UniProtKB/TrEMBL annotation:
SMART domains: TPR. Residues 416-450 form a coiled coil. TPR repeats lie at residues 106-139. This is Tetratricopeptide repeat protein. Keywords: Coiled coil, Membrane, TPR repeat, Transmembrane, Transmembrane helix. It comes from the Bacteria. InterPro entries: TPR-like_helical_dom_sf, TPR_rpt. The chain crosses the membrane at residues 379-398.
């Protein structure tokens, strides 16, 4: 037996050491997560930190491996490293669907959505973005509003690519709202300003201008002067559309001062910016500058849409400088590029329709699977309810039998107490007859002794009917005494106080029924120790004893061990002392 204890102890120590060793990886992952949340550029640093853990992955727990994969994919997303496979994140999302917090589940579904975004599966990406928003517990104080805002930002981008302007506007509004709740004022303003492009597509130029002006004020208010100038400067093309030359000139000068060359995440961004500048200069009849920027734009263009717009602008330029041959040539090129752009758009829409069909089929299969799962759930519920009903019936039968048993015990107890009283009375009469010692009493003594022994046997038979096989006449008398019932009442009402007279009455009752308590205990213990012994004899709880004698529960246990050593000259547990005291009759 001792050998097994040693083995268990060794395993326990190894588990502790293992947990301590793995804890450093938890701390390292936490640091990497904190670093990548500072800004997007720090995500590459976080990736290098996580790469340092990769050799130890087989030694980590499943929880730690799932956390590692989630954080690694999160860092890749922040570092703009495209995803090419969904296998790892599907496993991670499935794990966090059953483990972790609401924030963990939201992040897992968000990153999985980003995986499908990079794999050009927009409907599936949107599905997981929606799932991510459903996981967010916005009633909780620790809700990760920053991630929730990013989810809506990504949804808005996908809606833009799918030509769904109203869904895009709604997503940006929610993204701005949750970014504010996360304390991220900068991104809240950016999400707000991003709606400008959607209003422009819808032909609501005044709304687009107002959004840029409002965003410029908000950026300036938080000290982001560059973003403020850019927001204000972006309005120059809108002012040109309205024929407001003065406002367009002011906005354009501010725009040029920022040296903005477009969003570098998009290949054609710089070409688009140069085309817009060329159009501005052509509108202002600064034709040399217009030609320079339009030629630069054409050399950078990659998409047919931008090529069509730039060649169209160049056709207008050549028309202005009276070079009709080139004007016709570039106008024809523009038409050709427009046809190609139309074909690309049509192919893109066909792919989207196919993706939506696949998504619809996937949803149909998911619904069928859900129905089957629902049926299984109903069967499980039925089995559980049936089990509960059976349990209730069995509990009722059991409780009914217990009540019947209690009634039998009460009846037996009354008979037992009556027999004890008769036994005591016969014992007193027998003592009186023995004192008289006359010829008449000899026969009476014999009769009384026979009645006494017969009644005593009857009492023993009744004792056997009680639950406690150790029950004696003394135990019954003690637990039916007035002072026991008073102490029991005090146990149920801890705020009530006990008096000195109560202690004396308890001592008197126990000593009258068990005289051996005096030489065995009272004469060898102090008052507090003796009181503990009395209460132990009556089987009161340790906490109640501690409350009555004014010490802690651990103090009562220590006192019982000390009294065992003092009275029995042996070392033992408080329980052994209790057994010793309760055997005293």
């Amino acid at each position: 037996m001792m050998r097994y204890k040693v083995i268990y102890f060794v395993f326990f120590l190894l588990a502790i050491v293992s947990c301590t060793g793995n804890k450093k990886y938890d701390n390292l992952m936490q640091r990497a997560d904190s670093i990548m949340d500072v800004d997007d550029d720090s995500a590459k640093i976080a990736i290098r930190m996580l790469d340092g853990i990769k050799p130890q992955l087989p030694d980590l727990t499943k929880r730690q491996r799932m956390r590692y994969d989630l954080l690694y994919h999160k860092a890749m997303n922040k570092a703009y490293i495209p995803f090419t496979s969904d296998s790892v994140m599907l496993e991670v999302a499935d794990y966090y669907d059953h483990h972790g917090s609401a924030n963990d589940r939201m992040l897992a579904y968000y990153v999985l959505g980003c995986v499908y975004r990079d794999m050009h599966e927009a409907p599936t990406a949107l599905e997981y973005y929606h799932k991510a928003t459903e996981q967010a517990d916005t009633t909780s104080k620790d809700c990760d509003y920053a991630t929730l805002a990013r989810v809506y930002g990504q949804m808005a981008t996908l809606f833009d690519k799918q030509y769904l302007p109203y869904q895009e506007l709604a997503a940006y509004e929610k993204g701005s709202k949750y970014a504010l709740q996360a304390g991220d004022t900068l991104n809240a303003i950016k999400f707000y300003q991003n709606r400008m492009g959607t209003f422009a597509i819808l032909g609501k130029i005044d709304s687009a201008i107002m959004i840029n002006l409002t965003a410029a004020k908000m950026f300036r208010h938080i000290g982001r002067n560059y973003e403020s100038a850019l927001a204000f400067g972006c309005n120059y093309s809108f002012y040109l559309q309205q024929g407001d030359t003065k406002s367009a000139t002011d906005a354009f000068k501010t725009y040029v001062s920022t040296n903005y060359e477009g969003n570098l995440e998009y290949d054609d961004s710089k070409a688009y910016v140069f085309n817009e500048r060329g159009l501005y200069y052509m509108y202002m009849n600064q034709l040399d500058s217009a030609f320079y920027y339009l030629k630069q734009s054409l050399s950078l263009c990659k998409s047919y849409n931008n090529k069509a717009a730039t060649t169209k602008a160049l056709a207008q330029y050549y028309s202005k400088v009276n070079r009709s041959n080139l004007a016709i040539q570039f106008a024809l090129k523009s038409l050709t590029y427009q046809d190609s752009a139309f074909i690309d758009t049509r192919n893109s829409q066909l792919q989207q329709i196919q993706a939506m069909y696949d998504y619809g089929r996937h949803q149909e299969l998911a619904i069928m699977a859900e129905k089957k799962a629902s049926q299984r759930t109903h069967i499980i519920y039925l089995l559980v309810i049936s089990g509960i009903v059976i349990l209730v019936i069995l509990t009722y039968i059991y409780r009914r039998n217990i009540l019947l048993k209690k009634k039998r015990i009460e009846t037996t107890k009354l008979l037992y107490e009556d027999s004890l009283l008769r036994l005591t009375k016969i014992q007193e009469e027998l003592v009186q007859l023995k004192k008289e010692k006359d010829s008449l009493s000899a026969k009476a003594i014999q009769e009384k002794e026979e009645a006494y022994f017969k009644l005593k046997e009857n009492v023993k038979d009744i004792c056997k009917k009680f639950d406690n096989p150790q029950l004696t006449e003394v135990d019954v008398l003690l637990k039916n005494s007035f002072i026991y019932k008073k102490f029991h009442y005090l146990e149920m009402h801890p705020k009530e106080k006990i008096g000195l007279e109560d202690w004396k009455e308890l001592e008197k009752t126990v000593e009258n029924l068990i005289p051996s308590f005096i030489p065995l205990l009272k004469e060898r213990l102090n008052e507090k120790e003796y009181h503990i012994c009395l209460l132990v004899k009556l089987e009161f709880s340790t906490s109640f004893i501690a409350n009555l004698v004014g010490i802690t529960s651990s103090g009562v246990s220590a006192s019982r061990k000390a009294m065992l050593a003092k009275l029995c000259n042996r070392v033992g547990s408080p329980k052994e002392f209790d057994e010793y005291v309760r055997k005293i009759q």
